[in-house]
Amino acid sequence: IECYGSIRICQYEYVWICSGSLREGFVMGVDLAIIGSGAAAFAAAISAARSGRSVVIVERGAVGGTCVNTGCVPSKALLAAAQARQDAGAAQRFPGIGATAGGVDFAALIAGKNALVAQLQASKYVDLAADYGIEIVAGVARFIPGPHLHVDLAEGGARQIDAAVYLIATGAAPWTPPIRGLDQVDYLTSTTAMELAELPESLLVIGGNAIGLEQAQLFARLGTAVTVVEARDRIAPFEEPEISAVLEQVLASEGIKVHTGATVAHIRPADGGDINAALTFEGQPGEDITSAHVLVATGRQPNTATLGLDVVDVAVGDRGQVVVDEYLRTTNPRIWAAGDVTGSPQFVYVAAAQGSQAADNAFGRPPQTIDYAAVPRVTFTSPAIAAVGLGEQQAQEQGLSTQTRVLPLEYVPRAIVNRDTSGLVKLVAETGTGRLLGAHVAAENAGEIIAAAVYALSAQMTVAQLADTWSPYLTMSEALKLTAQT
After folding, report:
1. Please, what is the end-to-end C-alpha distance for the chain in angstroms?
2. Which of 171, 124, 134 is nearest to 45 (CA)?
3. Region class of 236: left (phi > 0), else alpha (psi between -120 and 50), else beta
């Protein structure tokens, strides 16, 4: 191709093609090319499309990313089903009510989950892309010098995509620790566990944080004998200690065995197709656990290994995360990144916010940053646990003097009439000013409760103001007001 002349506008260089021919599959003149099709990708694509930009998304797997396909949607759908079965068995806590939980048709349960995923994938992603005129290319993308994207198409052949701006939104995948013998057994991840053909008789869950706890309670409530192993000294180790204690007590009441301060030293096949795991406690040999399946839930790592980032001078961190500045720009001025691939808090709403912000910043609008101070988190166990802001120790590590208020749910009217008082609310405030620094909840509908705390934290309310704010009676959210008054 003969090129005659070019012009540079801001950081982008535009070249006129005056003669020659383009090889098959070459795309010229695309404003934004995105690798990945999850929340970050779609938020960026829609933001760009609304401003008249042309957008191409390249996806190597299922459209929609982790949340709709293998994360939030399927796991919460199955958790809701397990909760319904649990509620049937626990109905006797109400005088005069008797009910029992029947058996589980696990294949039908998984089929229903798959149908729901397909429905939401179509309506929230595939159809939405068509509405906005966003092209989705099925294939595996990697950067080549330019920068350009080389795409090995799923249907065969290859295609090169050239864009003014590129966005990396490839998300993250389950990470497995270097456990001796793990590669010799057919272990599960949070993704594959929800694709099992049969309900396992027993399950060992390695990892006692959000994903591991949700999966453990899910399978236990469906009838599986579950054991959880957590390397730290308590489950839910990033929550407040009071929250961890409540949840461990509830899991024990449901027959889930929990080993904390324990690691899996070795895994080996056992008789009858089972798996044996040898535990150590503080470096000392402990008991062996035999189970039908092992689920590894020890965290996630960014998907960057095959992107060819080195050839386009995009820096990565020690866990493979794409390094970005406060505006979500990488070390290559034409390449941006958003979502889990950046090592940011791995929540779909954070990914969406970053995707939209990256697109806006990339196309010349006044650059903006995102404030993460009031980002909430929820673990969908029962009781659910949720938090926003600082924990007590975090605040003290930042040099803040704190005062705390902790209210068990036995003092919350809604929990009393529900006849389920497992849980608590903890507020962390600054000594002297009373400014709310953080809220932590273990309760039914903790996610809904924490939303009110997000608003209070964002408004920089004091605990005294929260105590004087109206709250409807006989709601779980009233627990915030009551705790502030404590």
Report:
1. 75
2. 134
3. left
Identify the H or E element spanning 32.
strand 27-35
The pTM of this model reads 0.91
| Mean pLDDT to the nearest integer, 227-250 | 97
Rounded distance between C-alpha atoms, residue 88 and residue 91, angstroms: 5
- pLDDT the model gives residue 22: 43
Instruction: Take residue 247 and report the two structure tokens written for it.
Output: 């949840």
144, β-bridge pairs: 148
For residues 269-291, average pLDDT: 92
pLDDT at 6: 56
Residue whose token pair is 């009858």: 272
Most confident of 12-26, 281-295, 455-469: 455-469
Q: What pLDDT digit, counting tens, does each position of 104-136 carry?
A: 999 999 999 999 999 999 999 999 999 999 999
Query: Mean pLDDT, the chain, as a whole number?
Result: 93
- pLDDT exceeds cutoff 90 at 90: no
Question: What single string gives the DSSP state of each residue in 384-429?
Answer: EEEEEE--HHHHHHTT--EEEEEEEGGG-HHHHHHT----EEEEEE
What six digits make up the tokens of 258?
A: 């929990």
Q: Between 263 and 366, where is the model more confident?
A: 263
Are the C-beta atoms of residues 103 and 85 closer than 8 Å to each other? no
The two three-digit tokens of residue 180, written as one number:
């001796």
Give DSSP secondary structure letters for 343-387.
T----HHHHHHHHHHHHHHHTTSPP-----TT--EEE-SSSEEEE
Shortest CA distance to 148 belongs to which of 262, 38, 64, 23?
A: 23
Both tokens of 120, joined, read 């939401």
Tokens of 417: 């009439």
Contact 224, 88 (CB under 8 A): no
**DSSP per-residue string spanning 194-239:** GG-SS--SEEEEE--SHHHHHHHHHHHHHT-EEEEEESSSSSSTTS
Q: Are 230 and 207 in contact (CB under 8 A)?
A: yes
Strand ranges in 76-186 using DSSP code E only, listed in sequence order: 135-144, 148-153, 158-168, 172-174
> Crossing angle for the helix pair 241-253 and 210-222, nearest 10 degrees?
20
Q: What is the pLDDT of residues 160-216, one digit of tens each?
A: 999 999 999 999 999 999 999 999 999 999 999 999 999 999 999 999 999 999 999
